[in-house]
Write a structure and sequence with these properties.
Layout lengths: L5 E5 L5 H14 L10 H8 L7 E7 L2 E13 L4 E11 L8 H15 L5 E2 L7 H9 L16 H7 L2
Parallel strand pairs: 4-5
Antiparallel strand pairs: 1-2, 2-3, 3-4
């Protein structure tokens, strides 16, 4: 691993296009570019408002952003504690294996610790072996007995109007 000077900072409104570019790159990496509906305008409505729904961390090396993490607050009734949900973690290919992802997760863990969070949770694609290995190296347990459930689009409207 290279000895890089990695800076982590919270994203600002001026970073909107950069965040959009990272989301686009991640959707391509995940093989779901065809599902990408995010736009800079839609992001602005949720990221940079009085009570943002989500926060974004940017990882910079030599003043250039090379990765990001998008997360938001969740809650565990079992723990009776707040938690953090990591929605996206992405590092550009040339910078992988150089400590950028670790720096982003460490910063997120510091936020979790300072806000008394009981957990940080996220999903990882079952075919992303390098990602799984990376997360396990950071101390994550991969829960095999839990499945993601999703209701989206038309199904939300159908359920709401039953």
């Amino acid at each position: 691993m290279a000895n890089l000077d990695i800076k982590i900072r919270e994203a600002e409104l001026a970073d909107l296009e950069l965040i959009m570019a990272f989301i686009s790159q991640k959707s391509e990496f995940d093989g779901c570019k065809n599902l990408l509906e995010a736009t800079a305008e839609k992001l602005q409505q949720t990221l940079f408002v009085k009570s943002p729904l989500v926060r974004v961390l940017l990882a910079e090396v030599a003043g250039t952003a090379v990765g990001f993490a998008m997360f938001y607050a969740s809650y565990s009734s079992l723990l009776a504690q707040p938690c953090l949900w990591l929605d996206d973690l992405f590092v550009q290919a040339p910078m992988r294996g150089m400590g950028v992802g670790t720096a982003l997760l460490k910063y997120l863990a510091q936020i979790a610790e300072s806000t008394n969070c009981g957990r940080i949770e996220w999903t990882v694609n079952t075919v992303n072996a390098p990602g799984i290995a990376f997360y396990q190296k950071q101390g994550a347990r991969i829960l095999e007995n839990i499945r993601v459930c999703r209701i989206e689009g038309r199904a939300i409207a159908q359920l709401a109007n039953k």
